[in-house]
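Quick one, tokens below. Sequence please?
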């Protein structure tokens, strides 16, 4: 049983006021990580019947804030804002930088990748788990918001599996686009090969 409850909801105008989103904080997470929920009302009346579209987005300072080309996080976050603002739903912005190992360790892993190791091997070389994320916290956030049935925007099968194990019903998995370019191709290919992400490489060429 989760102790998570909604603490505060605050409206924030985004993108020069074109997007209105409600930022939501929570009480009861002992990790102190300050995960944040972002709620979008959705634009079309016809969307009223839609099950909320939800993206679990793991923090990536380099990609989300600075537009790093080594991954696809910044582009995926923009895509999630566009789509969820249209259709209504939530972004759960999870403070799980570097798949949970943290920013400094991610930079250490990048240095090892520059020597030829793949993204998962690099974590292992650092004696860190290849993926240290627990999406149970996202299920607790959804329950605190009164949401137990969702459409999930992802290509990562582990996100769906973990949410279902924690009592969230997934009506549909909506694939996120594949934003591939020269610096992140290997990172994306490795996710598809090692973790069975459903990536279709010809979908989008940025
Ligand atoms: N350890 C490590 N983490 C990385 C690396 N590249 C990106 N990341 C992290 O990977 C995470 C990406 O998370 P998400 O965008 O939620 O996506 P995902 O698990 O790939 O699944 P999708 O929902 O399909 O996008 C972020 O926390 C990034 O910081 C890397 O080379 N090493
Ligand atoms: Zn990233």
């Amino acid at each position: 049983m989760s102790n998570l409850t909604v603490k505060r909801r605050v409206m924030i105008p985004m993108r020069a006021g074109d997007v209105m989103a409600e930022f939501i904080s929570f009480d009861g997470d002992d990790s102190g990580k300050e995960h944040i929920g972002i709620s979008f009302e959705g634009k079309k009346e016809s969307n009223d019947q839609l099950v909320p579209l939800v993206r679990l987005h793991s923090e990536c300072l380099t990609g989300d804030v600075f537009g790093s080309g080594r991954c696809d996080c910044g582009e995926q976050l923009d895509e999630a804002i566009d789509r969820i603002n249209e259709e209504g739903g939530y972004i759960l912005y999870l403070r799980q930088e570097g798949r949970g190992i943290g920013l400094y360790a991610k930079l250490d892993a990048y240095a090892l990748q520059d020597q030829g190791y793949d993204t998962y091997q690099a974590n292992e070389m650092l004696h860190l788990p290849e993926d240290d994320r627990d999406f149970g916290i996202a299920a607790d956030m959804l329950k605190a918001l009164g949401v137990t049935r969702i459409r999930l925007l992802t290509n990562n099968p582990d996100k769906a599996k973990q949410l279902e194990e924690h009592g969230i019903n997934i009506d549909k998995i909506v694939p996120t686009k594949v934003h591939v370019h020269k610096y992140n191709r290997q990172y994306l290919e490795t996710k598809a090969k090692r973790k069975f992400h459903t990536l279709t490489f010809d979908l989008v060429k940025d």
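The CA atoms of residues 19 and 83 lie 11 Å apart. The chain is about 35% helix and 25% strand.
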